[in-house]
């Protein structure tokens, strides 16, 4: 492709915010593909980078193009690429594995010991073009509109959280109704959860949880959620608890509402170290605790595509806002307010 420049959202300095500027169109290597971005979406990780929290300050090395969720069209392929061709409609798995370590060689590249993350350790998707390693390019069905195709990566996080063990016929609580928590509600409903509880401090997002299939909604600032859940489940507690908030108090509440012998799947990331009474909260109650890193390569992607293409999961009520990419700051402010679901950015502007 002819060398040139493109517009992009760039984290230029180690402080709050980002800049709308010019960047070189990526030059791809032999095992990479160049993608014209049609749609991208904002993740909580992008928000952390934008706000420059402690995690971002220790991980991100400006200047760097932000973003990692994407849908687009391949416009160029490296000379060693064999599985992707120009014109393919793709999204991106964001784990970039080394392919050489023990985890990679034993079928777990998503937890590679030398793992890099697209848009975290590399330039990302908030641009007119981005480069993707061939190993991370996922070919989409043309039946998926770009604003849906771009959310498969976070949907995959919810899928692995909910489906890490059996969910059909189970009672389930989703703690934290940010976008991935809301996806978790939809996946749990589609895959057979019975009583499906959603908790959050944000009434806007609780209303979205109802649209996504939650049967009961609780706000922990207004009620004792553990008491409510135990009463609702006749004192048993829920079979499955999905902790999506990354909030310490919510973690303890979530463990307290799990039935003895039940399962706790933890996806939320915490800003500081957590202290648990393992004896009483976990061990003596036989709680099965699972740490979820988010998506397998590529089993989760097949599940996400099938759930979307079949209509079993309809993410459209969750996609609440669309902005031109250049209006990223307005989109970030909206996400900071909490009054949004999934926010999609469009390089060419909304149609």
Summarize the structure.
The chain has 351 residues and is α/β, with parallel strands linked by helices. 28% of the residues lie in helices and 26% in strands.
Report on the architecture of this protein.
Helix content is 28%, strand content 26%. With 351 residues, it is of the alpha/beta class. It has two domains: 5-151 and 315-346, Alpha-Beta Complex (Quinone Oxidoreductase, Chain A, domain 1), CATH 3.90.180.10; 156-291, Rossmann fold. β14 (238-243), α9 and β15 form a beta-alpha-beta unit. α6 (179-190) runs parallel beside α7. The model has no long low-confidence stretch (mean pLDDT 96).
Task: Summarize the helices and strands and which ones pair or pack.
Blueprint: E1 5-11, E2 19-24, E3 32-41, H1 44-51, H2 54-59, E4 64-65, E5 69-77, E6 89-92, E7 95-96, H3 102-105, E8 116-117, E9 129-133, E10 137-139, H4 146-149, H5 152-162, E11 172-175, H6 179-190, E12 196-199, H7 203-212, E13 216-218, H8 225-232, E14 238-243, H9 248-256, E15 258-266, H10 278-281, E16 288-291, H11 299-310, E17 319-324, H12 328-337, E18 342-346
Parallel strand pairs: 11-12, 11-14, 12-13, 14-15, 15-16, 17-18
Antiparallel strand pairs: 1-2, 1-4, 3-5, 3-9, 3-18, 5-6, 6-10, 7-8
Helix pairs in contact: 5-6, 5-11, 6-7
Q: Mind describing the biggest β-sheet?
A: 7 strands, mixed
CATH hierarchy: architecture of the largest domain:
Alpha-Beta Complex
Q: Count the helices. How many?
A: 12
Please tally the β strands and state the result.
18
> What's the mean pLDDT score?
96
What is the assigned CATH homologous superfamily of the largest domain?
Medium-chain alcohol dehydrogenases, catalytic domain
Low-confidence stretches: none
Radius of gyration: 20 Å
Structure classification: alpha/beta
Approximate helicity band: 25-40%
């Amino acid at each position: 492709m002819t060398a040139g420049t493109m517009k992009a959202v760039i984290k230029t300095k180690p402080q709050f915010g980002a800049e709308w500027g010019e960047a070189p169109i990526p030059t791809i290597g032999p095992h990479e593909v160049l993608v014209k971005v049609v749609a991208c979406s904002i993740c909580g990780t992008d928000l952390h980078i934008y706000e420059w929290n402690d995690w971002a300050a220790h991980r991100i090395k400006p200047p760097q193009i932000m973003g990692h969720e994407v849908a687009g069209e391949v416009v160029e392929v490296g000379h060693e690429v064999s599985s992707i061709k120009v014109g393919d409609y793709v999204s991106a798995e964001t784990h970039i594995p080394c392919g050489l370590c023990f985890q990679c060689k034993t079928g777990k590249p998503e937890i590679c010991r030398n793992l890099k993350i697209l848009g975290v350790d590399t330039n990302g998707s908030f641009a007119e073009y981005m480069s993707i390693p061939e190993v991370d390019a996922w070919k989409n069905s043309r039946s998926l509109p770009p604003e849906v195709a771009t959310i498969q990566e976070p949907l995959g996080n919810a899928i692995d959280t909910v489906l890490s063990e059996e969910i059909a016929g189970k009672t389930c609580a989703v703690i934290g109704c940010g976008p991935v928590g809301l996806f978790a509600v939809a996946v749990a409903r589609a895959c057979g959860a019975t009583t499906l509880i959603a908790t959050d401090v944000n009434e806007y997002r609780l209303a979205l949880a109802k649209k996504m299939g939650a049967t009961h909604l609780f706000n922990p600032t207004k009620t004792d959620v553990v008491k409510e859940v135990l009463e609702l489940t006749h004192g048993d507690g829920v079979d499955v608890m999905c902790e999506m908030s990354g909030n310490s108090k919510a973690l303890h509440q979530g463990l307290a509402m799990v039935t003895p012998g039940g399962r706790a799947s933890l996806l939320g990331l915490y800003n500081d170290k957590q202290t648990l009474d393992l004896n009483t909260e976990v061990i003596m109650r036989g709680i099965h605790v699972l740490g979820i890193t988010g998506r397998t390569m590529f089993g989760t992607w097949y599940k996400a595509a099938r759930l979307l293409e079949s209509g079993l999961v309809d993410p459209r009520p969750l996609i609440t806002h669309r902005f031109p990419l250049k209006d990223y700051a307005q989109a970030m402010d909206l996400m900071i307010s909490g009054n949004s679901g999934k926010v999609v950015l469009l390089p060419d502007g909304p149609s």
